[in-house]
Design brief:
Helix content is about 35%, strand content about 25%. By secondary structure, it is an alpha/beta fold. Helix 2 crosses helix 3. The radius of gyration is 15 Å and the shape is globular. The structure holds D-malate.
């Protein structure tokens, strides 16, 4: 358990767990208010990214904005997946109970988890995600629910990139919903409402 993290059990035993993955410069506390808005009573597992970029925590190294250090990304994705699996044993839940909620850099590592270590997650809400990497072989994501919520005027993530990520995940079998916001890279109220409704629909199945 070598990630600094916050853990809160779900209100109901066996209830959903939100894996909160912050953006660059965030920490394990950054998305706690968002989790409360998205799914009150859900359990929370919220790690802090282990890379520092000029003092700002991130989940993996980048060479420039949007240009990733792929070897580092692969290693850190494996580390995060191992952390999730060890948390299931320590706190008594299952990886299928875990829905990642990631913003920006956190959404990118959540997408990398889906592509490289699908055993670690039951689903994902990705705010402003890019294609983190294209794996050598596609994972098997049978009907794994994924929400991509991106901004139409995001200077960091183009519409093509969002569609590329959706296509990659769909070709692996995931059940992908793409939601477009009239927004840039920042999170808006519409993102929150969209994700809340999507979670209510997909976690009550
Ligand atoms: C990343 O580095 O993951 C993306 O550029 C998003 C960001 O963190 O700004």
């Amino acid at each position: 358990m070598d990630f600094i993290h916050v853990h809160r059990p779900p209100a109901e035993p066996g209830g959903p767990i939100l894996l909160l993955l912050h953006g660059t410069g965030g920490n394990e506390h950054a998305l706690l208010p968002l989790a409360e808005m998205l799914l009150p009573g859900a359990g929370v597992l919220s790690p802090r990214g282990q890379v520092l970029e000029r003092g700002m925590p991130r989940f993996f190294r980048r060479l420039a904005e949007g240009v990733f250090d792929i070897e580092d990304l692969k290693q850190r994705t494996a580390d995060l997946a191992d952390f999730i699996v060890s948390a299931t044993a320590q706190y008594g839940f299952s990886t299928t109970d875990v829905t990642a909620v990631g913003f920006s850099n956190g959404a990118n590592i959540a997408a990398a988890l889906l592509l490289l270590r699908p055993d670690a997650l039951g689903g994902a809400v990705l705010f402003r995600a890019m294609v983190p990497l294209v794996p050598d072989t596609l994972p098997n994501l049978p009907a794994v629910p994924v929400l991509l919520s991106n901004g139409r005027t995001d200077p960091l993530v183009s519409e093509e990139e969002t569609e590329h990520l959706a296509a990659l995940l769909r070709s692996a079998g995931a059940d992908v919903t793409v939601s477009w916001q009239n927004a840039g890279h920042e999170l808006t109220d519409r993102d929150v409402v969209t994700a809340r409704e999507w979670l209510a629909q997909h976690l009550s199945r």
